[in-house]
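Possible regression after last week's pipeline update?

I re-ran a chain I had predicted before the update to compare outputs. Posting the input and the new output here so someone can diff against the archived version. Not blocking, just want to make sure nothing changed silently.
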Amino acid sequence: MVSKEILDSFEIYTLQSDKLIACLCPSLGNNLYRLWDRVKQREVLRKPKNLNVLKDEPLYYGIPVLFPPNRTRFGRFEFQGRVYQLDINWENKHNNHGFLALHSWKVASTMQIGNSQSVTSTFATIDFPDVLRQYPHDLFFSMTYELKGSTLTQKVSITNRGVVTAPVGFGLHPWFCIDHEPEKWMFKLPVSYEWELDSELMPTGRLMTLGPYEGLTKGINLQGIEMEKLFSIGGHSHTAVLSRKDYEIRIQTSELYKYWLIYTMGMADEIISIEPYTWVTNAPNLPLPPELTGIIALRYGETINLKMTIDILALAQKTSRH
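New output (post-update):
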């Protein structure tokens, strides 16, 4: 069964299979802060030294949850005649990554069916006055992490329980380890085009061909790569692949995730962050249709469902699938 313990004064829920160990901290943004590969004896995700570090820097480890994802210029936007002001938390000027990663979630249930284990946690915006001040909507989030063998699945549902249509943009920020050995890793990302970014790393509204990143669709080596780039998936597969000679990590998302933000934190060395978004950075402030920006107008009673899987394959596993 899913185990529960107190670590560094925080409740931790641990899921285990013969291949992976996953550790979830609901009280710190429902962050799945550790994913340990038992076969290869390595950390899959960037792990904090302790949970107090995660508390101080909730966006830099594990899989932070973003709502809305990335930057919102001056923290301000308008939607259907309503003005929103998000807290300023980036360079004393903009909002970055919203509020879901900064608040505690409630564990609703744990379950084991056969060799599959899961934890479901929930978050209601109306439970947090500081959230309602920024985002005056009654949204209910439910997130389930399921572990089975070498596959970790995250399912998210977002329901509008209020009477006012809500602007929805959701994202994830998985920090994948590349072990200070970028030369050993290949990265494949089937995408259609790149968004031009301004000096503050927000889209100008101009869509560009992939240019020097054309190789992403077939795979590039991470040696010497420095990226903070935003891409649209378009008609391609919603699958990113991070691999080395004997190893493969496949990140697959459902179709409402239309964009990838790729971030190497300087020259690729320790990590690469492979971030799926439902809306593009600063989406509500772009003079573009929602078909391009990804803005979801969630009406009263409506629910959207999102899914991401992380599948970790050793060489023998890959061979057996062909």
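Follow-up from reviewer: compared with the archived run. The mean pLDDT is 96. Marking as no regression found.
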